[in-house]
Specification:
With about 800 residues, the protein is of the alpha/beta class. About 55% of the residues lie in helices and about 10% in strands. The chain folds into 4 domains: about 5-365, ABC transporter type 1, transmembrane domain (ABC transporter transmembrane region fold, Up-down Bundle), CATH 1.20.1560.10; about 370-460 and about 540-605, P-loop containing nucleotide triphosphate hydrolases (Rossmann fold), CATH 3.40.50.300; about 465-540, no CATH class; about 645-800, no CATH class. The chain has a 6-stranded mixed beta sheet. Strand 7 (about 545), helix 19 and strand 8 form a beta-alpha-beta unit. The protein starts with a helix and ends in a 17-residue tail after the last strand. Bound molecules: adenosine-5'-triphosphate. Adenosine-5'-triphosphate binds next to helix 13. The site of adenosine-5'-triphosphate has 12 residues, from helix 13.
Length: about 800
């Protein structure tokens, strides 16, 4: 076939992209189709068809087989009766006598015909019953096999292509019934008619077969041409399918329009469509030529058959009556034989697609989850021990000899450049991937020995690409596994900042989350990310893995997540993969990956103190537009701290904040004493707020702060003069001023340089007389601040501006700014 238009198209399509777009094995099998291969494969195919049908509808299969056997027998009886009746009717004697003699045969003929018709109706009804069941069963076996496979199966090259081919095989499975029925029916007719013909004269059958063979060959050739053409344009059709998706799906629709890409994509689509059409036209022409040759040869061999029959008559080898009966029997044989050829070819084609289905099941079978059956307990420690992992077909390892651990109650950050292995390590730790070398253990037990469902029940996983299930919003959060009541769902959504999503949807939690369905809704990227986070918070797995969980969130959303992290992590081991290094302040430990290896780990301060350390470099890079002492590399930072004259008091505050970041995260205001010690942290978000020593149930945050200041820090200063600020509206986050109030002492007693400028968010700081400070802070804070200042009669107030906001009014840079 080389040199055909079709094959030419195939080569060009592959060349277009410089990659193999893949052929499925059905197409390969069809390409090699010949009379011999078709015949050779038939028994196995019939066996497959029978096994599948037996699985789905045993009674129907039994009745079908009985019907087929009865149909064949009736056909043989009918044919024998026909020859007998014809022999008698065209023989010598009076017509009444002949009719009388032929009557029994005629009655058998009529009875057999009627019974066959009735059986035909039964067979058709049963076939219609079994056929869809076959496809449904094949489809269900495919789904079961796919979700029972290890995750890594999806990373094998061409997995998607083979899945497509297998799905087509599953659809084609319904054809098995009609194909097999046709084949069995034709075979039964053939046997019956052949018996009759052989009885009439043994020479007639080989003569007839001679006439059929050329037609069979031409049919198989035509199929072969059709398949080859189909196969040759596989790459084109696959690319057309992909382009069709891009041109019609919602997700790329905006990019295609904004990028004015429609013209280019349509041009590509038409280019491939033209090639498919050209290939089909060429195949149709060649097929017609083959069919014409086949028919011509068959015509000649039919002539031969008639010549043979005449020769038998002339040679008195056969009587005229028998010759007449033979003509009818030969017609039956011919029809049956041709029916068999067509049915066998069709069945072969179906079988080829089905082979894709079977080979996919086998392939997935090779990756079937085959792990242990131990059920993990209340796991405390999740560990990677010398773990290496390579994705199938990739050139190098994604992880090499990695040691890592995270225990319950701990929040560990995973950082590193793109492709350094963070996601891979989180998937290994969650038991989604299995290590090639080394092992992942949960409380010392290798995850391979743990029962996968039980293991994943302990995992709350927020991947980078979160699924948008076409289910209700509630099911999208509960993942279809509700526990507790709706309040738990709402609580999880609130913790993830998704409560506003529920509120804005017309049907709230019951809203169908898919625009494609009538009445469904869709969300923005960030809103979907909030939903994905709600899932993890609702699930309350022992291991909480969040892979870039705030990448799509606004500042408010990110604040909610990060401030709520400690609370969400309570009782869990938490791994946070992030490129937002500012988040690392709120974690217990940081692990830095580079090219699949752990190169640094420790607390943030420890890692930032490593001269030329990877994290220090990333930190400096990320903060290069934010040159305050807090974000400068370690050396620079030290110099700036010295420049700012860090005092004992500030150092103690710095230490406190580093050790206990949670209160500060939730704070909009701090009150310090003259040594820079924390007197009050004002909580902003009560529900997402935590204390380093833990909150006591039902304890008001402000009370918790007072208790903790006394218990943890031993501060027993005049707590009665502390400033307290109620929960503020969440939207103030972006413009909030962080006020540090030196409320109790005159200005001379404190040094502005002692301010604890540990936070990158702090942009400017200074000491101001109370009246100026009051102008600078938001109104909600000013009221409280005034009351405190009145009570304390402090002479100056230290004000730090937060985030990207400079003080809106007032002498922002008076005093000694440290940024
Ligand atoms: N499905 C895959 N098949 C082949 N290689 C992969 C696959 N997924 C990841 N890799 C490779 O494995 C390495 C680690 O990838 P991984 O996704 O773990 O990195 P990452 O640190 O999470 O990156 P990012 O910051 O971009 O999310 C990379 O070299 C990547 O190209």
């Amino acid at each position: 076939m080389k040199g055909d238009d079709a094959v030419g198209a195939e080569e060009t399509a592959e060349e277009d992209y410089g990659i193999s777009l893949g052929w499925d094995s059905a197409e390969k099998a069809l390409r090699g189709a010949s009379v011999a291969t078709i015949s050779g494969r038939l028994p196995a195919l019939l066996r497959d068809a029978f096994a599948l049908a037996w699985r789905v509808d045993r009674p129907a299969v039994i009745v079908l087989l009985v019907c087929q056997a009865a149909t064949g027998t009736l056909q043989a009886a009918g044919l024998l009766a026909t020859t007998r009746a014809i022999g008698v009717l065209i023989g010598p004697g009076a017509i009444t006598v002949r009719l009388h003699v032929a009557l029994p045969a005629l009655l058998v003929l009529g009875g057999a015909g009627t019974a066959r018709a009735l059986l035909g109706v039964t067979v058709a009804a049963l076939s219609r019953r079994v056929a869809p069941q076959l496809s449904a069963e094949a489809e269900s076996m495919l789904l079961t096999a796919t979700y029972s496979a290890e995750l890594v199966a999806f990373d094998h090259a061409g997995f998607g292509d083979r899945l497509d081919a297998a799905e087509r095989g599953a659809v084609e499975a319904s054809e098995l019934v009609s194909g097999t029925q046709d084949l069995i029916a034709a075979a039964a007719s053939l046997v019956a008619a052949s018996l009759v013909v052989t009885v009439l004269h043994p020479l007639l059958l080989p003569l007839l077969a001679l006439g059929i063979v050329p037609r069979w060959i031409s049919l198989v050739r035509s199929l072969h041409i059709e398949y080859t053409s189909y196969q040759a344009t596989t790459a084109d059709r696959r690319m057309m399918g992909a382009l069709r998706w891009y041109l019609t799906d919602k997700y790329p629709a905006d990019q295609i329009r904004a990028g004015t890409m429609v013209g280019h994509l349509m041009e590509r689509y038409l280019h491939h469509a033209d090639r498919v059409r050209a290939s089909e036209r060429a195949a149709a022409w060649r097929s017609a030529k083959v069919a014409a040759v086949g028919s011509a040869v068959s015509g000649l061999t039919t002539l031969l058959l008639w010549a043979g029959l005449v020769a038998l008559l002339i040679g008195h080898q056969i009587s005229v009556a028998r010759a007449g009966a033979a003509v009818i029997a030969l017609q039956s044989v011919s029809t049956a034989l041709w029916g068999m050829v067509v049915a066998a070819s069709r069945l072969y084609r179906t079988g080829a697609y089905l082979a894709d289905w079977r080979s996919f099941l086998n392939e997935v079978g090779g990756h079937r989850l085959a792990r242990g059956s131990s059920v993990p307990g209340d796991t405390q420690m999740f560990r990677a021990e010398g773990v290496s992992f390579s994705y199938p077909g990739s050139d190098g390892p994604a992880l090499s000899d990695v040691d890592f651990e995270v225990r319950r109650g701990e929040i560990v950050g995973l950082v590193g450049m793109n492709g350094s292995g963070k996601t891979t390590l989180s998937k290994l730790l969650s038991g989604l991937l299995l290590a090639a070398d080394g092992r992942i253990t949960w409380d010392g037990v290798d995850v391979r020995e743990l029962e996968p469902e039980a293991l994943w029940k302990q995992v709350s996983y927020v991947p980078q690409q979160y699924a948008r299930f076409p289910l209700t919003l509630e099911a999208n959060i509960t993942l279809g596994q509700p526990h507790g009541g709706t309040d738990d769902v709402v609580e999880a959504a609130r913790a993830a900042g998704a409560d506003m999503v529920i509120a804005k949807l017309k049907h709230g939690l019951q809203t169908m989350m898919a625009r494609v369905f009538w009445g469904g809704s869709d969300l923005s990227g960030g809103e979907w990310q909030r939903v994905a986070l709600s899932r993890a918070f609702y699930r309350r797995g022992r291991l909480l893995v969040m892979d870039e969980p705030t990448s799509a969130l606004d500042a408010q959303g990110e604040h909610t997540i990060i401030t709520g992290l400690r609370r969400q992590s309570r009782g869990r081991a938490t791994v946070l993969v992030t490129h937002r290094l500012s988040c690392l302040r709120y974690l217990d430990r940081v692990v830095v990956l580079k090219a699949g290896q752990v190169i640094e780990q420790g607390t943030l301060d420890e890692l930032l103190a490593i001269p030329d350390g990877e994290l220090a470099k990333l930190w400096a890079l990320q903060q290069s537009d934010d040159r305050d002492p807090a974000v400068a590399p370690p050396g620079e930072r030290a110099a700036e701290q010295a420049d700012c004259g860090e005092t004992e008091g500030a150092a103690s505050l710095t230490g406190y904040l580093a050790a206990h970041p949670a209160p500060l995260m939730a704070a909009d205001a701090l009150i310090l004493d003259e040594q820079g010690r924390v007197l009050l942290v004002d909580p902003v978000y009560k529900e997402g707020w935590d204390l380093p020593g833990g909150m006591i149930e039902d304890e008001a945050p402000a009370d918790g702060v007072l208790r903790e200041l006394q218990e943890e820090l031993g501060i027993a200063a005049d707590l009665g003069r502390l400033l307290t600020v109620d929960t503020v509206p969440k939207d103030v986050y972006g413009r909030t001023l962080l006020a540090l109030v030196y409320a109790a002492r005159p200005k001379e007693a404190v040094d502005p340089a002692a301010l604890p400028l540990q936070r990158s968010e702090v942009r400017a700081a200074g000491f101001f007389p109370p009246e100026e400070a009051l102008e600078m802070v938001p109104e909600y804070l000013a009221r409280r601040l005034k009351a405190t200042l009145d009570a304390t009669r402090g002479s100056h107030v230290a004000v730090l501006t937060h985030g990207r906001t400079q003080p809106a009014s007032g002498p922002a840079n008076r005093g000694r700014p440290c940024s």
